[in-house]
Amino acid sequence: MQEAWAACVRATASALDATPYSRETLKDLARTLPSRARAPQAFAEFQSLSAKAGVKLVYVKAFKGGKLDGCAMMVDGHPVIGISGRGKRLDKVLFTILHEVAHVFIGPPG
Fold this sequence. Notes:
This protein is of the alpha+beta class. The protein has helices at about 1-15, 25-35, 45-50, 90-105; strands spanning about 55-60, 70-75, 80-85. It has one domain (about 1-105): Zincin-like (2-Layer Sandwich), CATH 3.30.2010. The chain has a 3-stranded mixed sheet with strand order 1-3-2, sandwiched between helices. The model has no long low-confidence stretch (mean pLDDT about 90). This is Transcriptional regulator. It comes from Corynebacterium yudongzhengii.
């Protein structure tokens, strides 16, 4: 089930546009996300803000019984952050986004 959810994130990300990845732009964005997230409607801007940093931010609703809150991967040469919204709490979604941003900074294992 988790692999199927991640495949949906990958497929959705392939259809999105983003500028070339910029670690500095993503770092600046990550610093401002908590203050931007004070209003629920601000979350709607996160996808376009992420794209300006070269990161494709994708929301795929959690599958019934799914256990993933988010993931980070590379798709078509771009970092991708997938979020499921599991738990339906904005603070948890923000935490998940920032957690996955950390994975983008660290890079793949190995």
